[in-house]
Structures are given as C-alpha cells and as structure tokens.
Amino acid sequence: MGFEPSDTATVLAEQYLAFNEEISPLAQTFDTYQSLSNPEREGEQEQEPFNNQEYITRSHRKRGNSSGQAVGGLITDAAKDVFVLHKNLFTWNTFKVISSVFPLFVGARMIDEKLQRCFYDSRFKKNINQMPSWCHTVAKTSIAVPLVLLGSDLFFSKDKEKRWTAQIMLIGMPFVIWTKKLVKQMKFDACLRPWHEKLTCGKGRSFGGFPSGHMAQALYMAVLYGSRYGPRYAIPLSGIAAFIGVTFLTCNRHYMSQLIAGGAFGTIYALAASKLVEKKLTDNVKLGIAVDGDGHPTFSASVKW
Known about the structure:
two-stranded antiparallel ribbon, about 5% strand, single chain, mainly alpha, Vanadium-containing Chloroperoxidase, domain 1, 2 domains
C-alpha cells in the first residue's frame, strides 16, 4: 500500500512544525542579541553576524570622541572667560580705582624714605626695628592657604555662585601674577626697592618693587570675595593682606607706595572677575516680554540649572 500525495504533505508539514518548535527559542535569542548590538537594524530580515570586537572598538571610539569634545569645550570656555575678564578691565570700575588710589600713591611716595628710616639705619647700613623672621616666611606663603581653600569650592561646593566665583578666581590669579611680573620689568624711580642690609650692601638698590605682587594677589581674593559675600570673607582675607603689607614694609621689601599700587592692581582684577561671575549667573536666568495674539503683554522666565 503506497502513500498518497496528501499523506506525504501532511508528514512533511508535521516534521517542519516540530523542527521549527525546536529552533524557535534559539532564533529568538539570536535576534535579541543582534538587536542589542545594532538597534537600527532590528526590523531587518537579514542581519550580519555579530562581531564582539568591532562592537567594543566602536564603543571605545565613541567614548574617546565624547571625552575629547568635553576637554575641547572646557578649553574653549576658559579662553572665552580669560578674554571677557580682561575686557572687563577697561571699564569705569578701573578708572574709579585708579583715580581714588593715585592721590594715596603720590602721598605715600612723599614719605617713603622718611618711613623707611624707621626700619633701616643708613649710617651702619643695617636693618632695625624688625619683626621676627618667621613673620616674613609666613607672609610670603600666607596666600597659598586661602587660595587652596577657596579654590576647592569649584569641586566641593553645592552653591552655584561659589563654584563660579572659585573658577573665575583660579582663572584670573595666574594673570594677576604674570601681568605683575610684566610691569615689574619697567625701570623708573618708583620701581626701586628700599635699602636693605643684605640686598643693597655695597651696591645700589634693585628694581622690581613696583607693584607689590603679594599685595596684589591678597587684595584680588579679598575684594572679589568681600564684594560678593560680605564681611564673612572680607575681614579674614583683608587681615591677611594687612599682615603682608606690614611685614613687607618693616622688613624693607617694599615701600608703602609700592604696597598701595599692588593693592590697587589686585582690586582692579577683582572687580573685573566679579563682573564676569555676575554675567555667568545672569546668563542662566532669562526673562522675556512679548505680545500675544489678542494684543495682551505676556511675560516669560526660564532658569538653566
């Protein structure tokens, strides 16, 4: 007795269904694996074999590109901040500081030599009435402590204004130092340092005293944080600046006029930096006024966190 064509088709169909049930879970697993590796091709019927090494290489390349873009963005933003900071130097604030301090500078110049005779004996060429030597050492390094503490707000503070202030302070500090060094290259009478038993014995006085760099850095921090946060920061930072000034004056490192000039220099940079911080904060808040379809005024506000 032979098989009829209908019986043969039935047997083949049953075998196909049994085989399909056996490989169906494996096929689903393979499809899921392929869709995770390349979601855009999930609906395609024909898929390329999954290449694990290619997937890892592509992932690392994407991470590298994103990291490079982030670093490039940081450098670009820092360059913009430097430009705006120095643009802010050419404002009325700078003119006000110079016009206010200049009479004090001229008055101090008139008494510089008389005041120095209190701390230097020109007859015996010896320093007199000196503060303890440790004061000079502390004064030279006293700027580092507040610089580190205030700069750490950039990484650890939850207050957005303090983070911006710390960032702009750290960006501006190198330029306070470099610009001060550039000014110190000039050679005129106001740049001469006071007489000193070790530095000027048997020879003339050295240049480089105008302006006082330490005083510029100290007032830069004191004015920046004092103008933004009040006496809580202004008093201790101004105390550090005063300690530096008294120490350097009595140890014959600077004339009073040079200390005043350094303070004015730091103040100018501090006001420019504070203006930049204010711009950073206001850029995150945008207010708008418009007119709707009925002719009524509408107001809008947006805040970027």
